[in-house]
Write a structure and sequence with these properties.
This protein is mostly beta strands and 181 residues long. The protein has one helix at 8-28; strands at residues 47-51, 56-59, 68-72, 78-85, 88-92, 98-102, 106-107, 111-114, 122-126, 135-140, 144-151, 154-159, 162-167, 171-172, 179-180. The chain folds into three domains: 7-35; 47-109, Roll (SH3 type barrels), CATH 2.30.30; 112-180, SH3 type barrels, CATH 2.30.30. The chain has one helix and 15 strands; from the N terminus they run αβββββββββββββββ. Strands 8, 11, 12, 13, 14 and 15 form a six-stranded antiparallel sheet that branches. Strands 6-5-4-1-7 form a five-stranded antiparallel sheet, with no helix packed on it.
Length: 181
């Protein structure tokens, strides 16, 4: 009679192989792939957050032993979290600089930069989410705003001395078509 026992290591390998085959079959059949999530928080990756303080070291790796490559000096600055490792988050800023920061220096508060790539330009803020409405303010590119909500086309933002709607495409800190409540 043949031995039907399978070693624990081989059983784990077989489970992983079967899972990979099922995943490949599901993708081939048009099943949507799950959105990636952080291994520490379980939150979606990538996602936006903001800096808690005026001084945040951006490091080349996820530990204090790694060199500081940049120091952010604007509390509220939006950053995109692209990876997680223990208490560290890999972030990217609006100019594409990437590195690692301590999670305790980040906030879930949603902020956005007004058109950071269009220096010197002004952008209208409207009383209602329509470009023919009353203008409540004019903001220069690079202004940080609190994001209160977005419907996929327009975002309600506010800050020091302004509140109103801006087209979502004029912001860095929300994804195209993202809905924020």
């Amino acid at each position: 009679m043949a031995d039907t026992t399978v070693s624990t290591g081989r059983r784990a390998w077989l489970k992983r192989a079967l899972g990979a085959l099922l995943l490949a079959g599901g993708l081939a059949a048009g099943v949507a792939k799950a959105e990636p999530v952080g291994t520490v928080t379980g939150l979606p990756l990538p996602r936006y957050a903001s800096l808690k303080t005026d001084r945040v070291n951006l490091r080349e790796g996820p530990s204090k032993d790694h060199a500081t490559v940049w120091v952010f000096q604007r509390a509220g600055l939006p950053v995109e979290i692209t990876a997680e490792f223990e208490i560290w988050r890999k972030v990217r800023d609006s100019e594409g600089a990437e590195g690692w920061v301590l999670h305790s220096l980040l906030s879930g508060r949603r902020t956005a930069l007004v058109a950071p790539g269009k220096k010197g330009q002004a952008f209208s803020i409207y009383a209602k989410p329509i470009s023919t409405g009353d203008v409540t303010a004019s903001l220069q590119s690079g202004v940080i705003a609190n994001v209160r909500s977005c419907d996929g086309s327009w975002c309600l933002i506010d800050g020091d001395g302004f509140k109103g709607y801006i087209q979502q495409t004029a912001l860095w800190g929300v994804y195209p078509d993202e809905k924020v409540n």
